[in-house]
TrEMBL record:
Entry-linked SMART domains: WD40
Gene3D superfamilies to which the protein is assigned, alphabetical: 1.25.40.470, YVTN repeat-like/Quinoprotein amine dehydrogenase (2.130.10.10)
IFT121-like zinc finger domain ranges (all copies): 1208-1249
Protein name: Anaphase-promoting complex subunit 4 WD40 domain-containing protein
Any one Gene Ontology cellular component term annotated for this protein: non-motile cilium
Domain (IFT121 second beta-propeller) ranges: 343-675
Natural source organism: Eutreptiella gymnastica
Ranges of residues in domain IFT121-like TPR repeats: 1022-1103
Amino acid sequence: MFVYLSKKIAIPNGVKLRSLAWNCEQGWIACGGDSGLLKVLKLDTGTGADKGKAPNNLSMNQTLDGHDGGIMVVGWNENYRKLTSSDSNGLIIVWMLHKGMWFEEMINNRNKSVVRDLRWTSDGQKICIVYEDGAVIVGSVDGNRLWGKELKRQLSHVEWSPDGRYILFGTLNGEVHIYDSSSGNYLSKLVLPCIDDTPQPVKLVGLHWSSNSYTYTGGEGLSDSKTPTLAVCFENGRCQVMRSEMDEKPALIDTGMRASNMQWNSQGTALAIGGVQTASTASGEKKDVGMVQFYSPTGQHLRTLKVPGSGIAAISWEGTGLRIALAVDSFIYFANVRPDYKWGFFNKSLVYSFTKMERPEHCVIFWNTKTNEKYTKYVKRLLHVKSAGDHCILVTKTEDTPGQHIVILCNEIGSPIDSKYFDMECLYVTVTLMHVVVCSEDMIWVWQYRSAASAKQDSIDPHYLVGLGSAILRKDTWERLFSVDENVTALSPAELVANDPIVFTKSKGTTNDAICAVCASEACILVGRESGTINVYTLPNISLANKFVLTCRPFMMALNCTSRRLSVIDINGVLLFYRISTSPDNSMEPPKPGERLSFERKDVWDMRWASDNEELFAMMEKTRMYIFRGVDPEEPVLSSAYLCTFNKLKIKAVLLDEIMSEPDHPQKDYVLNFETKSLRDTRELLNSVSIEDAYAFIEENPHPRLWKLLAEASLEKMNFTVAEKAFVKCQDYKGIQFVKKLDLLGDKQKQMAEVATYFKKFDEAEKIYKDIDRKDLAVELRVRLGDWFKVVQLVQEGGGDDILIMEAWNHIGDYYADRQKWAKAVQYYGQAKNYEKLVEFYYLLEDYKSMERLIDQLPEGSSLLVTLAHKFASVGFSTSAVQAFTKGGEIKAAVDCCVELNQWDQAVQLAEEHQLPEIPVYLSKYANHLVEKDNICHAVELYKKASRHTDAAKLLTKLAQRSGKLQKHLRAKQFHVLAALEIDKQRRKLLDTKATGKDAQAALMDAMLQHDSATGHDKHLDNAWRGAEAYHFFMLCQRQLYDTNIEATLITAMRLVEYDDILDELEVYSLVALAAYYAKNWGACSKAFIRLEALEAKPPDEDDTIITTNPTTEAAGVDNVINPQVDQMMQNLNTNLSKINVEQNARAKRAEDEMEGMRRKFQDLAMKIFICHPPDHNQQGKGQCPHCPAAIFEWASHCSGCNTTLHPCVVTGRTIMTNSYYTCRTCKHRAYDHEIYRFKNCPLCHSAIQ
């Protein structure tokens, strides 16, 4: 950082100041002095580029009356906009703002002692006031007293912890005590190692706990435990900076002066300690010099600011941390602070870091100042940000290994390109196009990284590449570590590469002359030491070339573009120049030490050499920017911007202060561009004088940028001779060739058109070509520019052919495709008949209908058909995919597509049409796999899609049987109906033949044989509807029973007897017996009980069948030499099978015992019923056969007289005995007309009734 005095305000009547406070939020400054003087001031700050300059006016200057004694303490409550002041008489006044003026709000006077200090909490809710006699008062913002306490010690200072949990009290004898803020109870005494060696008590002059919310989280302490925030300072100049109130190892500081006060800035990044140092004058007299020392939170000295006057009474920071106010005698001095931001500028991108309240890491933003794009990265424990060329580096500490650091090489969007670990302290860093140089106090580490510049080496001055070894060395990546005290010698390329990676040794820190600055170019590295000694090392083969001594301690160093001049800014802000090489430009000699130049500027805090002229540089002096050519300055410009680049007579600078105020939203207005005077003058001359006069001026002030301006001006005036000379002067080979091309044209109109094109006035050039009736040249111009819209327009006007317009449409389609406007792109691809692009973008647009039309447009065998088919398959359009595959000649791929999309019917059809035998095999294997996984429903769906109706019906029948066993009768009926429908489909498929005559008969015979072979082994498939009928009538009987329709229940129950092979016999005959009992049909009831008494226990299900083969017996033929382990396994298996057989037998016996018990119960019940109601077994049917006069029962399925098959009514369960009935078109079952009219669907198959 750098600090310089910028303004002084005098207090009227020479009243001496005692206290000072700067409001961090609103910017008010309260100052108190003798005789009750209390004033509130506010500086008038500018905006934008003028914001950083020294303010000249005061926007507020109000004197507050109310105090008689000297103002001892002033303090701001920033959240509630209140000011608290106290004088030497003990009077306390709280001031409030009303309509832009300050008025008294509350007054308090204890009349016993003087107020030594008062502090508000960080949230402004509470205030703590301490008196010299030990009295403490804690109050709220509304004036209420919360608690008070009388301490038995004299107090001088008070401070709140950032979270408001603790209060620290400083005593007059130099002690600090910690109390609980809510109760006022004593907790502990602060350990003060900075004054342990002092025999007598030392006066406490400063106690400040930074309330920076970025580092202090309260309760648990610091989010970054290594960032101290609590500072304690004593009059002897000693200070300690602590991480928390319990920190046992604080950072110790000895300022070497008599301190008077101290304060953190609002960010907690800089600590200012004010005091007086005794110095000897030239005559030997002792003189006190006021000064402010600035330190980092870790205790590192940052800067010293000397202040005129007898001493510093008070210090206060501005809220931004960019200014500090000092109360000295009867004056207020203001000093501007230029912080050392972590930032860099490279390749039109600004990289900078800052911290956020919600995150412990550093937020690093890569901002492209041209496109306004931002890329955000979060980096832990960031130390340095440096940039050069097309890259920047981030230096961080690692978390895992103490003392280890990492250098991350990034591009302009923040993506890491390379990284390197190193185990040494990182104090000073610089980077060039190829090298990273890191220094500790005594060690130097150099890393040559690989980048685009390393490969091309375009931007390197050729005279630095001495020999083939250097050229090879610059293409390799290597690193080297050496001490600043050793005499480093050059290593060969092979040795350097062999040393990578190097072994780091811990720095001993024994050097008496530590490193304090470093800079580098592509030719050398310069390392500055505290004594002023400069070590010069050559690159790329590192060796100590020479040393020379400066007359100051360097703080910032930089080399010009030729590495022959060195600029040095010392610790006091003085800018000096040294000539380190006296060799001519074309010499290959290494740099040599030279003399100091007669140039000196004070209060300089930044400088930048021009990258294309060794004499030009820019520097920032206080709030002014100067541009120098040699030692001659131009007129200064008011600015506080940080310098980024200086080339082509333009300076790019950035207002980092404004960016850091809102780092997430940088604005392009914060990037400034300045031109040198010679560039401005040249522009004016070119507009006002002749080309020859301008040529003479530029010869006196030569620069490639000026020659470029002259060349362009000469082109505009068609003066090709001067233009060629100017292009030669600025070494623009393309410009020279362009001028030669113009000379060859001969035609002035064509020359004017080409010049207009050179200046990117394309419309003007086109107009010239049209005026001379050369539309072909206009078309050629637009083609070169890639302006295909204009090409289409010119071709339509008659300036081209069909081939050119097709190319233009293709390029216009590419234009819209690159911008993801695919709907527009396909319009132009369609006009260009670019089917390949149409396939791609129709797919992106999900326009599948247009893709289907492409199938017809593409020729057979086209590879695009296969691409189109794959895209259809990816979205499940099997029909279109098969069509495309087939037309493309990929039949196997079409079949595979059907299989993948589960379209087995299409797959089988294609396989049959093209004689591919693999599909049925794959289908069966897949179906069996599904059945084994008990996924029968999916297997059924698979068979249905493949038109394997019989196989589907078999699986559905199996599901129906399983549902029947689980008493899910409705589900069982549904499965039987589906199975029957599949059998019907199979029959229709077999009988659907277009043959005639004998061929038809033969086809019919083959179909019947196929059907018999498919269903013959399964009795359930022979009459597929029988299972559905069984469960239909069973549920109908149950419903009739619950409806107490006893007669209908008996009829339906008697019909169920025909299905006892499908239904459970116990359930069927139990239902018949129950219905007959209620119907008093004792004959039917007796027959049912006879069947119930004759029931036998069921054998185990097929699924429960156990293999009882004795594996030992089957293995009897094995050789006598048996592995003992195998033998043991076989014995265990035999034992397990025996146990399973025993369990199976036991289960069968239990089933037989249960059935025997049921038979006895049936016998007892039958005995009770039929003793009272003897059965009549000679009953006659009540109905008559519709085909003969024989009497039949209403549940009969055949006539005993004519042996005619009779059909049941699916609505009532009765046998149909009339010719008035309805037949379902699906299941072919019948129902009475007067019964079916109530239904919309068939009661059996549930198909719609028509």
